[in-house]
């Protein structure tokens, strides 16, 4: 087993967190957590084992959250805000330990993991401030002697289901607004990265969250449906917030229909990145590097299709290939590493399939295009950062999200042509384009079918901005003041006989 040294060893938790207690799983089964930088057969690849949860664990967490909600919802907003502020301060205090946990179980380089801790903490800080700003309205009365008011109330128990690629930021982005407005949470982190979520729960415990306000149940890929189905079937769960694949999101929407739950679904992406011939090419390359290669391309908003206008394709592809070829690949703990391992074998196999399909159909390999092994790269999950040119719509990576360090370049001629190609996908999460032309900027921003647009900018995420998509990329928003609405009901009060 990997020897994990933390400044605060209490952050490494290997039990469910239910009703303020660290408890073993009812099934007695264990879920191993591996370091993706090492071959899974090596003993030191095993970081820890957590419970492989079942329906009984899920029900216990739900019962605790339902009971806690009755008191948490009426806690003054200022007190909820203070609890979140304490949680935020503890994240900052333990950021190095949290970054080490993220790097070990998810694989991203340590510097990037530290960035994720600060990014996730920013949501907690933001929603701590917003907790005291959930305002209602006084409406103009329709007739004399009447008062018409609008109140905002917490929806109830929230089930949060989170992915592995940002194991701290994604769960913080869901828990913080829920707790801020008075909801209680049952959470199921991704099976590959449960340790970070459990560490967050430990810090919530230290911050003084009352028992049952935040509950975390871990489970394997095989047993996750048994856990989540309890929450889907229960009328006590009033909202599901999920980040992950579109097929799973569709299942959650169907299964939530009988109890009419509110849903926030942040699903798959297939982001276009468009470079016009009047763009600053160096800035556009920097934008691709920031947007595409963060977390090794394992983000839902990273560009999956890069469209370059014909007149600048040669210059742009040369500049980009040179930058990508120079990216250092290595395990997270290697100080100069910028690209870590992919999360698991399935991820590498999909990347490999997409690249081979593109090459077989006529794409040209500018750089990369292979698995990496050798000194310091002893695991099977490393893939060379890759640039492909001459990519066409009939290739698999055009319609499927690659989720890896592969930058495919498409050539286009006209603005109308690239708009049609950019929108020719079921997904609509993010899009990017580079051009200094103000008229074109407004035309493009209006025409692109997505929830997020980066205009001459590759790094768009912020706790102050609404995050979410359209079409098969889901609905609902996270972050910003708009992110509170999905955790609130609107109640209208009409009082008469006042004249």
Give a quick summary of the entry.
The protein has 499 residues and is α/β, with parallel strands linked by helices.
Explain how this protein is built.
With 499 residues, the chain is of the alpha/beta class. The chain has 2 domains: 9-267 and 475-491, Aldehyde Dehydrogenase, Chain A, domain 1; 271-462, 3-Layer(aba) Sandwich (Aldehyde Dehydrogenase, Chain A, domain 2). The chain is built from 15 helices and 22 strands. It has helices at 55-72, 77-93, 95-106, 110-130, 169-181, 194-207, 224-233, 246-256, 281-292, 313-325, 345-360, 396-399, 415-423, 438-447, 482-485; strands spanning 16-18, 21-23, 30-34, 46-51, 137-139, 147-154, 157-161, 184-188, 214-216, 237-243, 262-266, 271-275, 303-309, 364-367, 386-389, 406-412, 427-428, 430-434, 452-455, 470-471, 474-475, 488-495. The strands form 6 sheets. A 7-stranded mixed beta sheet has the order 14-15-16-13-12-18-19, with helices on both faces. A 6-stranded mixed beta sheet has the order 9-8-7-10-11-21, sandwiched between helices. A 3-stranded antiparallel beta sheet has the order 5-6-22, with no helix packed on it. Helix 3 runs antiparallel to helix 6 (194-207). The chain is globular and about 75 Å long.
Q: State the name of the first-level CATH class of the largest domain.
A: Alpha Beta
The count of strands amounts to 22
- Our count of helices gives 15
Number of domains: 2
CATH superfamily of the largest domain: Aldehyde Dehydrogenase, Chain A, domain 1
Secondary structure: elements and pairs:
Elements: E1 16-18, E2 21-23, E3 30-34, E4 46-51, H1 55-72, H2 77-93, H3 95-106, H4 110-130, E5 137-139, E6 147-154, E7 157-161, H5 169-181, E8 184-188, H6 194-207, E9 214-216, H7 224-233, E10 237-243, H8 246-256, E11 262-266, E12 271-275, H9 281-292, E13 303-309, H10 313-325, H11 345-360, E14 364-367, E15 386-389, H12 396-399, E16 406-412, H13 415-423, E17 427-428, E18 430-434, H14 438-447, E19 452-455, E20 470-471, E21 474-475, H15 482-485, E22 488-495
Parallel strand pairs: 7-8, 7-10, 8-9, 10-11, 12-13, 12-18, 13-16, 15-16, 18-19
Antiparallel strand pairs: 1-2, 3-4, 5-6, 6-22, 11-21, 14-15, 17-20
């Amino acid at each position: 087993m990997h020897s994990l040294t933390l400044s605060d060893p209490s952050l490494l938790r290997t039990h469910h967190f239910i009703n303020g207690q660290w408890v073993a799983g009812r099934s007695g089964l264990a879920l191993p957590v591996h370091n993706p930088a090492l071959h899974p057969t090596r003993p030191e690849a095993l970081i820890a084992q957590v419970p492989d949860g079942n329906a009984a664990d899920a029900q216990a967490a739900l019962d605790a959250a339902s009971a806690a909600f009755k008191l948490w919802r009426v806690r003054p907003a200022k007190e909820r805000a203070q609890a979140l502020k304490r949680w935020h301060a503890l994240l900052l205090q333990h950021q190095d330990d949290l970054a080490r946990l993220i790097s070990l179980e998810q694989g991203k380089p340590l510097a990037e993991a530290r960035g994720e801790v600060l990014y996730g903490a920013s949501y907690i800080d933001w929603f701590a401030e917003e907790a005291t700003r959930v305002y209602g309205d006084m409406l103009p009365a329709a007739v004399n002697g009447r008062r018409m008011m609008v109140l905002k109330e917490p929806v109830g128990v929230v089930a949060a289901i989170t992915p592995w690629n940002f194991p701290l930021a994604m769960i913080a982005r869901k828990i913080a607004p829920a707790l801020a407005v008075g909801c209680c949470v049952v959470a199921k982190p991704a099976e590959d990265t449960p340790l970070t979520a459990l560490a967050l729960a430990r810090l919530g415990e230290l911050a003084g969250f009352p028992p049952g306000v935040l509950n975390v149940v871990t489970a394997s890929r095989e047993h996750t449906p048994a856990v989540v189905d309890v929450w889907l079937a229960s009328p006590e769960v009033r909202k599901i917030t999920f980040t992950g694949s579109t097929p799973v999101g569709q299942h959650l929407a169907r299964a939530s229909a009988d109890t009419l739950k509110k849903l926030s679904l942040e699903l798959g992406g297939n982001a276009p990145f468009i470079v016009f011939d009047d763009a600053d090419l160096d800035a556009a390359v920097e934008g691709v590097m920031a947007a595409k290669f963060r977390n090794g391309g394992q983000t839902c908003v990273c560009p999956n299709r890069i469209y370059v206008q014909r007149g600048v394709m040669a210059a742009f592809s040369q500049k980009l290939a040179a930058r990508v070829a120079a990216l250092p690949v290595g395990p997270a703990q290697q100080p100069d590493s910028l690209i870590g391992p992919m999360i698991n074998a399935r991820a590498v196999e999909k990347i490999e399939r997409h690249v081979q399909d593109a090459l077989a159909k006529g794409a040209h390999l500018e750089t990369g295009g292979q698995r990496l092994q050798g000194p310091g790269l002893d695991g099977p999950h490393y893939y060379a950062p890759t640039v492909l040119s001459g990519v066409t719509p009939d290739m698999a990576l055009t319609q499927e999200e690659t989720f890896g360090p592969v930058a495919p370049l498409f050539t286009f001629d006209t603005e109308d042509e690239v708009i049609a190609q950019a929108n020719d996908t079921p997904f609509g999460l993010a899009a990017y384009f580079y051009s200094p032309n103000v008229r074109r900027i407004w035309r493009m921003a209006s025409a692109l079918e997505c929830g997020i647009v980066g205009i001459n900018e590759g790094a768009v995420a912020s706790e102050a901005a609404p995050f979410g998509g359209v079409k098969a990329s889901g609905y609902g928003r996270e972050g910003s003041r708009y992110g509170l609405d999905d955790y609130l009901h609107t109640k209208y009060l009409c009082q008469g006989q006042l004249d």
